[in-house]
Each structure stands twice: as C-alpha cells, then as structure tokens.
Design brief:
By secondary structure, the protein is an alpha+beta fold. Helices cover about 50% and strands about 10% of the residues. It has 14 helices and nine strands. The strands form three sheets. Strands 1-2-3-4 form a four-stranded antiparallel beta sheet, with helices on one face. Strands 5-6-9 form a three-stranded antiparallel beta sheet, with no helix packed on it. α4 runs antiparallel to α5, α7 packs antiparallel against α9 and α12 packs across α13. The longest helix is centred in the C-terminal third of the chain and has 29 residues. The chain is globular, with a radius of gyration of 28 Å.
C-alpha cells in the first residue's frame, strides 16, 4: 500500500492493494474517517478536495452557503439514489464526478452564475467531447439545481439561461432496412437465443425489458406479453428492477412469427432444464444462459456483433434494433399513438422525433407518388410548349 504523505489534518490518498490502480482518499471530519474510492489516482485527488469542501461546509448543509460539490453529493444521496433506478443514479453520479464537480464543484451554491456554467460547458465542447455528452451534463446539472430551487437554496436556476449545441438528430446510420433485418434473423437462426432477436425486432423492446421477461409475463395462447420489470446490473448483480417509466409497463400484441419463435425457444429451454436438473434456478426468466441464470447484456452484445459480421451488416448498437422497429411501424402506416404504446414512450413526440427515421426508400416512394400526381400533366404541358413558341429562323 502506497501512501501520499500530507500534513496532519489534510487527509491522504493511497493505493490498495499496491499496483492495483485502485486509489482511495480519506479525511477525518469531526473525528470520523471518511473514505472515497476506489478511483484512479487523479480522481483520488479530486475526491480529497471534495472531502475538504464537505468538512469546510459541514455546518452549511441545507443553506445556500454550501459548495456545489457538497450540494450535489447530498442530492445524489438523498434524492436520486432512493427514488430513481440504479442505472439513472449511476449516469447522474458519473456526470457529477467526471464533469461538474471538477469544473464548478468549488463554487458556493448561491454564487454559481449562468456565465460560469456556460464557460465550463463550452470548454467541454472545445475539448472534443460530443454534443450528446455536453447536453447530458447540462441536463444533469439543471435537474439538480431545480431541486435546489425547490428547497429554496437558490432564487433561480442558472442553467436555464445557458445554451449548448444540440446533438445531431435524424440519424439513419443505425437503422436496418427490412431485407437487412431479415438477414440478421437468418444469421441468428442457430443461436439458442434466436427468439430474443425476433422479439426485440418485432416489438422494439429495450434490451433490459427483453432480458427481464418471465414466462408469467407471456401469454402465447392470446399472443401477447406484458412488460413489468427489466433486467439490470445493480451492485454487480443482475436483478429485475422497475421499468424506465410508468408507460414502460405495457401489454403488447405479438406477431405470429414471434409467437412461433417463443414456442420453439420454450421447448429448447425445457430440454436444457432437464439436463441441468435441480440446479436450474427458479427465476422463470424467458431468456437465460444454458444453466438457467440471467443473461448478461455484455454476452448478448458479443453474439450480436458476431451475427452482424456474419450477415455482412453495418456495426450498429443493440438499441438500434428499437429504432429499426419504430421505423418499420411508421413504414407500415401504424398510427403514432399505437406506436407510442408499443414502444413504451411517454409522448408521441418522442416516438416521431427520436425514433422514426426517414429512409431513402421512403423518399423515393414520395417522389414517385408526386410524379403520379403531377408528372403526367407536366409532361403534357412540355409537349404543347413548342407549338406555343414562335418559330425561329434558321441560322
């Protein structure tokens, strides 16, 4: 264990075990040893600064005189962690740790200005970070400071007056065309989890929703399934947790080909269960490993990338299957409200603005339809045009 020597009362950082790259920061506050980590060595220095800010402001918690770092730590602990999904908490915590606290964590909460926030977000953009990352950081800080305003710690939210570049929208690179989607299903035909690909493309399920399905959620006779939970890794353990939003809880009709795929999958799973015997976990999950345990998203992604390569398809994200489904629904003329219910969106605007993508085929179809409507009359006019023009003398 290697220590970084500091004067008494200044705290310390250390690596444990030595050579592991796992660093910790410690500081005594009111006789109690506070510890942060494991993090990188650079982050350990930041954590030590946060602990110093906590000690200096320990009597200020609940007032506007606390620093931004102290407030954010309390917000994450008391508001975000108890009431939001673990994945959301980790996203907020990462944004706070990586971007917000290093930039403005030292500023007193009631003295944080819009100009300071604008400056640090602009610096993020200039450093080469994506517009999506910058926007996410802005949203996280804005959400936190909205709570500070509700608690009457600040008079107004300084982030409300800050502008950043909007991320690019209308991305089509990750969308599969119908023939490409079929190629993916063909490539995954021998995969023991082939039904996972079928259900995901047929219904546009989030990956966690698909992996969190239980057989009690599926009614193959009625041809429908219900989303009640989703599978997520919480503190290193795969668990079924509450879905993303209230509208994420939904019942969806299954296409016939998805019902067939799920029946075949259930038969295969029962055969595997007989081979494993009593050791098979009683979790009722639809999609499991060959020994009945929950499926890791990382392992699914590894197989997914392999199938993409096998089918000669572009390298896309698993979530792009959800984009693909939304586009297919729009292509088939499914009403936006129905698509919203199938996808589990909170508004139709999210369905149309985020997930519905215009494909080149649609543009060609629109051009063809316009030609059918107006092209014939235009052609007749072009034939009449020479007769209406005065004759010109030969040169």
């Amino acid at each position: 264990m290697r220590m970084s020597r500091r004067a008494n009362g200044e705290g310390s950082i250390y690596e444990s075990p030595k050579g592991s790259g796992r660093w910790y920061a410690t500081l005594f506050i009111d006789g109690k040893r506070h510890k942060r980590g494991p993090v990188s060595r650079k982050e350990a220095f930041q954590k030590l600064q946060e602990l110093h800010a906590l000690r200096e402001n320990r009597g200020e918690l609940g007032t506007s005189r606390q620093t931004v770092a102290v407030f954010l730590e309390a917000w994450l602990r008391d508001v975000v962690k108890p009431h939001l999904r673990p994945k959301t908490y980790r996203t907020y915590a990462d944004q706070v740790r990586l971007h917000i606290v290093p930039a403005v964590g030292h500023v007193r909460l009631d003295r944080l200005s819009s100009q300071q926030v604008q400056r640090f977000l602009t610096a993020m953009q200039e450093s080469g970070l994506s517009a999506s990352t910058v926007n996410q950081t802005r949203r996280t800080l804005r959400t936190a400071l909205a709570q500070a305003r509700r608690w009457r710690l600040i008079l107004e939210n300084p982030v409300d007056h800050v502008r950043v570049a909007a991320p690019e929208s209308g991305r089509t690179g990750g969308i599969l065309r119908p023939a490409e989607a079929q190629s993916l299903l063909d490539a995954a035909a021998d995969d023991r989890l082939q039904a996972l690909y079928v259900v995901s493309l047929a219904l546009g399920l989030r990956q966690g929703e698909a992996l969190g399905l239980t057989w009690s959620d599926v009614d193959l006779d009625k041809g429908q399934l219900t989303i009640r939970k989703q599978l997520q890794r919480v503190d290193g353990v795969l668990q079924r947790v509450e879905p993303k939003t209230r509208r994420s809880r939904r019942t969806i009709a299954l296409p016939t080909f998805a019902v067939i795929a799920l029946r075949q999958h259930r038969t295969r799973q029962l055969e595997e269960r007989l081979q494993v015997g009593p050791a098979w976990p009683d979790n009722d999950l639809v999609f499991t490993t060959s020994v009945g345990t929950p499926v890791s998203a990382r392992n699914v992604l590894r197989s997914f990338k392999r199938h993409l390569r096998s089918a000669g398809l572009p390298d896309i994200r698993w979530h792009d299957l959800r984009h693909t489904t939304a586009s297919f629904l729009a292509m088939q003329g499914v009403h936006q409200r129905t698509a919203m219910e199938i996808l589990g969106h909170s508004t139709t605007a999210m369905t149309t603005e985020i997930y519905t993508h215009v494909m080149p085929e649609w543009q060609r179809d629109a051009a063809s339809r316009m030609n059918d409507l107006l092209g014939a009359s235009g052609a007749r006019e072009s034939q009449l045009l020479p007769a209406l023009l005065p004759e010109t003398a030969d040169a």
